[in-house]
Amino acid sequence: MFALVDCNSFYASCERVFRPDLKNKPVVVLSNNDGCVVALSKEAKNLGIKMCDPWFKIEKEYKQKGGIAFSSNYELYADISSRIMDILEQLSPRVEIYSIDEAFLDLSGVSNCLDLDIFGRDCLETIKKWTGMPVRVGIGPTKTLAKVASFGAKKYPKTNGVVDLSSKDRQTKLMKLMPVEEVWGVGRKIHRHLNGIGIKNAYELSQLDLNFIRSKFNIVLAKTVRELRGEVCIDLEEEAPTKKQIVVSRTFNSRVTNLKMLHEAVSDYAARAAVKLRREKQTCKVLSVFIRTNPFRKQDIQHREIVSVPFILPTNDSRDLIKAAKQGMDRVYREDFQYNKAGIMLSDFYDEGVSQLDLFNTQERKELDKKLMQTIDKINRTSLGPITFLAQGIKKEWSMKREMQSPRYTTSWNDLPKVS
DNA sequence: TCTGGGGTCCTAGGACCC
DNA sequence: TCTGGGGTCCTAGGACCC
User: Fold this and answer.
1) H or E stretch at A318
2) How many Å apart are CA A326 and CA A318, to the nearest integer?
3) Nearest to A194 by CA among A173, A176, A221
4) Rounded to whole angstroms, how far apart are CA atoms A187 and A79?
5) Contacts (Cβ under 8 Å, ≥6 apart) of A214
6) Entry pTM
7) CB burial class (10 A; 0-12, 13-18, 19+) of residue A124?
8) Which residues 74-113 in chain A have a CB closer than 7 A to strand B?
9) Tens digits of per-residue pLDDT, A186-206?
10) How confident is the model over A232-248, as pLDDT tens digits?
11) CA of A296: nucleotide with nearest C1'
12) Is nucleic acid strand B under 7 Å from A220's C-beta?
């Protein structure tokens, strides 16, 4: 048995934790650059706001109706997320952190000694009490069915946020009520295709012939179908597998033509990626740089390009990555284009421990470089930081817009909420 | 004026080898 | 001149997820 614990409109709820005055008010959270809506409260949904709506299109009307908006504050969200995950780890022996706002729990031990519905409620109430965050709990024999249960808990208020799909009858009943596009693993393309052959709900999908699915769709969807029937195909993954690539990219706050600024931007991204790479205890052998004009501006001539810069030896030294990012930028950059986004990607990873000696650097030199990076990372985890490289720029004129960001209530002394 | 960012997996097709 | 068939590896692109 699996449980899926899922936070209700996570980012919007995070913003409410320290702002009780926002209870029952429409709240939306915007993507980087205040571009579009990435999270919205129930009340905002009722105003007709949808996920991915561009902010500039809805801003005026939304505000007139009394809606509140926030720029994304990932520091706050990450901190609240980790508090919730800590609680779950106390409640269940095996937890897979699936995303910032979702976790799967293995309930096979729990089901012997406790009613699953009671366990679910206990989970929900503990998290509410300790963090103030509203969650729902879906329980089922496979991960995909736990997702179905979670859909039910969200859709039907009478469930009070907990749905247990242990029984086959309840599975069938709920799947018949669930539009097929809500099924985990069914995206836009497959939805269209399924509709084309008359499949409308999750139950109808679960009844399709597996060979038919494999020949007309693919084996991924066949797995989904088997999971809907209660056959476990997707196991719990407690340990996060080591990453295979790391991407850092941003849309600029305005269009950029100047090579110097682009150098700054990709240097900044490379330095951020280097920190992530070292946190994974990995080194990489390839850095790619990409650049893009704004595809929404049909009137502009477009240019997009990606190049790879290989390293002779795998590295996670910020200085190596910054240098490569600038080289890559020189190769993709063309004058007279108005760029709106650039990014870098690291790939071809090796364990940090496995180091090769090369002709030019001694072992002592390597140890020294490694210590330097460790020291910088350490300082940057404290309030003494941040230490950055000059190449990352000082003013960062290209960097993104976040005009409506909430304070870092939980991670910065200066932003602690005051009680008077 | 203004449309996010970061991942994984699968598949088809090309290069190369025997 | 004649140019098969099967395997592996890599890459780009598509589809999905949150």
Assistant:
1) helix A318-332
2) 12
3) A221
4) 30
5) A222
6) 0.92
7) buried
8) none
9) 999 999 999 999 999 999 999
10) 999 999 988 889 999 99
11) B3
12) yes
